[in-house]
UniProtKB/TrEMBL annotation:
Keywords assigned by UniProt, alphabetized: Glutamine amidotransferase, Transferase
One Pfam family matching this protein: GATase
Species name: Celeribacter halophilus
GO molecular function: transferase activity
Domain named Glutamine amidotransferase: residues: 73-178
CDD domains xrefs: GATase1_1
GO (cellular component) term, any one: cytosol
Protein name as annotated: GMP synthase-Glutamine amidotransferase
Source taxon at top rank: Bacteria
């Protein structure tokens, strides 16, 4: 399977220098010899010709808000709708989760409850209670028509969404394993954007295990089998 990665943003330089940028993180996360990859830097207006350029698609995280006015937002939303109409399967991670929801009629907002940083727990069907790293303040606050909640928690109700047989999206970052989150925490240690107490809590929790591999296996199964993989 050829997985097209739509790179909606880039890892911070100090993180990328150690761990690589988002496409490499996802290649390592899936670790599937039967997958091939091609990526497009859509943040900088590098777009595929259309949905037919890959068998399935993945949209990455980004520092941008899905509701912000950037040149790549409108053509990305159009591409999302085209991929959906084509029947090809699609995954969305963090910003990818949000922009897919917005492109299909949902609402994304800066959450009044603040940030989620580091290890969080989610109830995700069919996996049960799992832990994944998060790094976000924006959330999907209104689901598009046809989107069903696959899982969430008290802080983020719409943390995982599934759309019929073709789209699976999640708010946290399965690709940000504990060693990568550690690099994020170092890179953002003095950034006043993030509450110091949440950074400290994330660092204190970072020695606990996360379920990146379990969710990666679920995503891969969804790309291959669709909704059947979620039962």
């Amino acid at each position: 399977m050829k997985l097209g990665i739509l790179q909606c943003g880039h890892a911070p330089d100090p993180v990328a220098q150690i761990h690589g940028d988002f496409p490499l993180m996802f290649k390592r996360l899936f670790d599937r010899p039967d997958f091939s990859y091609e990526y497009w830097d859509v943040e900088h207006m590098d777009f595929p010709k259309g949905p037919e350029d890959a068998d399935a698609w993945l949209l990455t995280g980004s520092k941008h808000g899905a509701y912000e006015d950037h040149p790549f937002i409108e053509p990305l939303e159009e591409l999302i709708r085209d991929i959906h109409a084509s029947g090809r399967r699609m995954l969305g991670i963090c910003f990818g989760h949000q922009i897919i929801a917005k492109a299909l009629g949902g609402t994304v907002e800066k959450y009044k409850g603040g940030w989620a940083l580091g290890r969080q727990s989610y109830d995700i069907a069919p996996l049960g209670r799992i832990h994944l790293n998060a790094w976000h303040q924006d959330q999907v606050t209104q689901r598009p028509e046809g989107a069903e909640v696959l899982g969430g928690n008290d802080f983020c109700e719409n943390a995982a969404l599934v759309y019929d047989d073709s789209i699976l999206t999640i708010q946290p970052h399965p690709e940000l394993r504990p060693n990568i989150i550690s690099a994020y925490l170092d890179a953002r240690a003095d950034d006043p954007t993030y509450p110091a107490e949440l950074l400290e809590q994330a660092r204190a929790e970072n020695d606990k295990p996360t379920d990146d591999r379990r969710f990666a296996d679920l995503m891969a199964a969804f790309l291959e089998h669709g909704r059947e993989a979620l039962t």
